[in-house]
TrEMBL record:
The keyword S-adenosyl-L-methionine is annotated on this UniProt entry: no
InterPro entries cross-referenced by the UniProt entry: HTH_LacI, LacI/GalR-like_sensor, Lambda_DNA-bd_dom_sf, Peripla_BP_I
UniProt domain HTH lacI-type: residue ranges: 110-164
UniProt-listed CDD domains: HTH_LacI, PBP1_sucrose_transcription_regulator
Pfam families for the chain: LacI, Peripla_BP_3
Keyword DNA-binding: yes
MF (Gene Ontology): DNA-binding transcription factor activity; transcription cis-regulatory region binding
Protein name: LacI family DNA-binding transcriptional regulator
Keywords: DNA-binding, Transcription, Transcription regulation
Amino acid sequence: MRAAPGGTGDRRVVAGVGRTGPAVVARSRAVGCWVVLATRAPLVVEEGRWETPEHVFSTVAGDVGRGQGPIRLGCSSRRPAGRHVRHAACRRRRCRVVVTGRGAGRARPVRIVDVAALAGVAPGTASKALSGSGQLRDETRERVRRAAEQLGFTPDGVGRALSSGRSFTVGLLTTDSIGRFTLPVVLGVEDALGAGDVAVLLCDTRDDPLRERHHLRSLAARRVDGVVVTGRRTDPREPVRTDVPVVYAFQPSRRPEDTSVVVDERGGAVAALAHLHALGRRRVAHITGSERHAAARSRAEAVTAAAEGAGVPLVAGPLHGSWSEEWGRRALDLLLRQVPDVDAVSCGSDQIARGVCDRLRELGRSVPDDVAVTGFDDWDVMALASRPPLTTVGLEMHEVGRTAARLLLDAVAGRPRPGTVVLPTHLVVRGSTVG
């Protein structure tokens, strides 16, 4: 009798089972005992009995690398009387060694039941976790994903498509050719879909309706399961015309019954103002983008209302212009001519805020000692390169993408959620307000 080496949690590595590589030993919740699950190389299994503090399992000799396999595994539980009685579940399931078949030989490929056993879940749960469907906890999906990666599990794409009627691809339409907002959304979408081996097809419409229709026809020809639509503005857009489920990320649909995921811009603007008030700033101004943009309007309205509600109204009306550093510089000059003793500036974007900081430094005013400055967006290209780094409002665009992808999977599975989901923003405090 040889003792199985110890390990952490419910998983151990037993080097002696396979002379050509270690095997993974895990406690199977479905079976209720320890089983040898997998090795990532062709495996030569030695005959013997292996002991853990609670269970005993045995193997028979065999060379999986030459196509013989899977190797059967006997398993029994330790009883107080010292007898080892094989579990009924083990008799039914025939616990076995599973080999991925990498390298020489024709070993049986890893199946979903093997992934489920290593992850400690039912096969149906593992399938849902890898396909991105079902109501599962994130930690469960991640555990299954790690198990699949450890075993080298590759879903049969053709078989899955035929059996499910799905292509396991989704389209992502964007008007943001720069990628400033689209890139984190795409990363969030891929994080949510990657565990289910769902591919994302990115299409840049460049704000061209003809190009958008072309991409939609192309995605339809590829039989995508659904589409995520995003853009660089928060102005509501016309809904796209397609026969598959659609979720709008960051830029909502005009149609209230559509599914949209947006950020709480008003809440973010109010949080930035409250931060300035908490620092004792009472002569606050607001500089933002053009009134043509919904983002500029909503942020300015929120700041104005919150300032009046706090009994500390803005020292001047919101200054509207472009989303640029140049506008930040010019707007500050206009502001100082009206209110020379302003002690804080709330900006509608990081670009504007960086321009304000640069101009203040040129005029010999210290940031934040003389004038505190806040931005909006937490765009690291601007926020971190500013001198000093900007206190700003983070939009959680990565989470926007993740949430949109989950909602799309639910819609594809026949569980649509109409309406708008509003995700919170958060304040990132840096040197432009706190020295």
